[in-house]
Hints:
- This protein is an alpha/beta fold.
- It has two domains: 5-185, NAD(P)-binding Rossmann-like Domain (Rossmann fold, 3-Layer(aba) Sandwich); 198-225 and 259-318 and 338-363, Alpha-Beta Complex (UDP-galactose 4-epimerase, domain 1), CATH 3.90.25.
- The chain has helices at 14-25, 69-79, 93-98, 100-120, 157-176, 198-210, 231-241, 260-270, 325-331, 339-362; strands at 5-9, 29-34, 59-63, 83-86, 128-134, 180-185, 188-189, 217-219, 225-226, 229-230, 250-252, 258-259, 273-278, 285-291, 303-307.
- A seven-stranded parallel sheet has the order 3-2-1-4-5-6-11, sandwiched between helices.
- Helix 4 (100-120) runs parallel beside helix 5 and helix 6 (198-210) packs across helix 10.
- Residues 91, 93-94, 134-136, 186-187, 196-198, 201, 219-221, 224, 226, 260, 311, 313, 316-317 line the site of guanosine-5'-diphosphate-rhamnose (GDR).
- One of its GO terms (biological process) is 'de novo' GDP-L-fucose biosynthetic process.
- Its EC number is 4.2.1.47.
- It is an enzyme of class 4 (lyase).
Amino acid sequence: MNSKVALITGVTGQDGSYLAELLLEKGYLVHGLKRRTSIFNTDRIDHLYRDPHDRDQRFFLHHGDLTDSASLMRVIQHVEPDEIYNLAAQSHVAVSFDEPEYTANADGLGALRILEAVRILGMEKKARFYQASTSELYGLVQEVPQRESTPFYPRSPYAVAKLFAYWTTINYREAYGIYACNGILFNHESPVRGETFVTRKITRALARIAVGLQRELYLGNLAALRDWGHARDYVDMQWLMLQQEEPEDFVIATGEQYSVRDFVEHAAAELGVTVGFEGSGVDEVGIVEHVENRDVRMTPGDVIVRVDPRYFRPTEVETLLGDPSKAHAKLGWQPRTSFAALVKEMVRADYQLARRDALVTMAGFPALEHHE
Ligand code: NDP
Ligand code: GDR
């Protein structure tokens, strides 16, 4: 069988792991770009990896970095991909205010470096290119809901860098005829979402509070509104976008919106706990009102959520709501996972992890602690 070859940058990340799984199921040979780290960070893809000595290996990892043109050129030349999915990025919006130059380099110039490598290697007609664009481009929103034609107004170094990558993708498509497209993806989450993004931070903390490993959860802007989908559904769309006759850009979203506060309430309800919010601004708190689950170590009256201004951003994106009708009409794509099902899956997974950590602690071993 003549398998298609895919190269995924950011393969160790949330989307990279779901996409690698999807492409392997479809019979692709999958190559992933991985940067050097001082400790193992392949947890999300370990289940896909085989010993390099296995004959039927279909998944390969290569060291490289989006800030290092030579490494990108070397890997693309060696792999000769039919499809390149550029998912690698410094993807945390708040961190981009602390590391603006690095974020611009990796997230903005990174896409340019890949496209330039494709051009220099003469692969314009061979390699199709997917760019992980983002709803953060809309920032200070100019239209509700946001669709492909909505004007952009980026509100962070992250979004500004992604805007550069967005237009570079379009420019290389028009200038050199490369099959290159942008998926403008709204927030998507999963049990393997990075622990410092708000959804995972909430499900992880509430699960740990439920088993007695933690007392409180500190959050920033509770009023922020997002359109949250499931990463598994969204990587289907990344693949579909590269299978069309003509390259185009698509918004991927659910078309439903919830606040951070709503997310906390839904996650708590999944644990059998009712949480209500009182106060306002930095004095707002989330208080346990009712506990139905006898295994949960929470009592009515407990304050489990507090606001910490440390998590506010210098410029915030208050509201995002996507209109995925183009993806639906042209590609037949629809998200399969509801908001309730997403929250349930994340809470259940984090509750299992919290129970495991609680058992380790009870057996006398130190609790695993991680700090933001
Ligand atoms: P993650 O943060 O989970 O993964 C990012 C990946 O990029 C990781 O594999 C990371 O490696 C890698 N990476 C970071 N910097 C570099 C670099 N300089 N060189 C090479 N690799 C690097 O992000 P997601 O999976 O959630 O998102 C995937 C992409 O989609 C990102 O580009 C993100 O900006 C974008 N996006 C995400 C959305 C979401 O809601 N999840 C929505 C819209 C867009 P390591 O593991 O070593 O850190
Ligand atoms: P976002 O995701 O910035 O939308 O970027 P994040 O989960 O970080 O924030 C969502 C909203 O929640 C508010 N918030 C908090 N956020 C974090 N991280 N921690 C908190 O304690 C907290 N409290 C409230 C934020 O202010 C924000 O309004 C994600 C990333 O995956 C990007 O890479 C991607 O491009 C966009 O989604 C679409």
